[in-house]
């Protein structure tokens, strides 16, 4: 069987407000991807569509016109470079990108667990691993119920520390119901969505590897496809994919048959 190929379908340029590296340009991102021999790379700056009410003061400037300043993207003969975004999923479970505007992007990363955004994403009272596990599973279910082009959607950083920064993300995953996860991920597999392996989402790897992998093993068993992500906000962080993800890919037993690919036409 052919191997699972490294790629980076979720990274940020200096247009994302949380990126403070002015050298983080599309050209720099593509140069790194070509040097690493990635199968694909995608630019995914933070975005809140003006057509969707409720943007925070931080999100409001990061609209479609803002992220489109990166266009046209530089191109390489060796690595396809896609134009995407990372939109938000606020507490009402309605993505911050209007359905009719998905067509402007090759790929859309959607996080269900930006729980550091209290109020906007995280409701009051969700303060234990058990409550957080219930909330995240419910949000995955509510997102799947919507009329969205899931073949160009990726579920971002399912085990990132932002999900439960006051405690252990591994504890949250341990509180999730395996049968419920299988049902959720079967839905995403049938819809064609991608599952993200984020280089910054395995901070507890040494101590809690098996617990962190539970959610990804459920996705694999359900038939989901996977992709890599550095979630880089600096040039140095781009190196996370080759430094971190090979061990995750090996632990999950992924090969080319498990690889998610961005649809080629918007």
Automatic annotation (TrEMBL):
InterPro entries reported for this sequence: PHP_dom, Pol/histidinol_Pase-like
Signal peptide stretch: none
Gene Ontology terms for molecular function: catalytic activity
One Pfam assignment: PHP
Domain PHP: 8-119
CDD domains per the UniProt record, alphabetical: PHP_HisPPase (cd07432)
Name of the protein in its database record: PHP domain-containing protein
């Amino acid at each position: 069987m052919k191997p699972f190929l490294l790629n980076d379908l979720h990274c940020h340029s200096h247009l994302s407000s949380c990126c403070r590296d002015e050298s983080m340009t599309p050209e720099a991102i593509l140069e790194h991807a070509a040097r690493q021999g990635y199968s694909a790379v995608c630019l995914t700056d933070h975005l809140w569509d003006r057509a969707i009410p409720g943007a925070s003061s931080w999100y409001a400037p990061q609209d479609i016109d803002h992220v489109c300043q990166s266009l046209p993207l530089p191109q390489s003969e060796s690595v396809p470079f896609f134009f995407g975004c990372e939109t938000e999923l606020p507490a009402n479970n309605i993505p911050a990108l209007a359905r009719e505007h998905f067509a402007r992007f090759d790929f859309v990363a959607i996080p269900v667990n930006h729980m550091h955004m209290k109020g906007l994403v995280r409701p009051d009272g969700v303060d234990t691993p058990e409550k957080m596990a219930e909330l995240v599973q419910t949000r995955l279910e509510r997102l799947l119920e919507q009329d969205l082009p899931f073949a160009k959607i990726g579920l971002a950083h399912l085990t990132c520390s932002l999900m439960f920064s006051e405690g252990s993300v591994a504890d949250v995953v341990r509180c999730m119901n395996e049968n419920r996860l299988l049902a959720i991920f079967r839905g995403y597999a049938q819809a064609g969505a991608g599952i993200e392996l984020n280089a910054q989402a395995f901070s507890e790897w040494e101590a809690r590897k098996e617990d962190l992998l539970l959610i990804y093993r459920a996705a694999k068993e359900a038939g989901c496809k996977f992709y890599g992500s550095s979630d880089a906000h600096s040039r140095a962080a781009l190196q996370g994919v080759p430094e971190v993800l090979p061990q995750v890919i090996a632990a999950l037993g992924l090969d080319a048959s498990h690889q998610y690919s961005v649809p080629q036409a918007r």
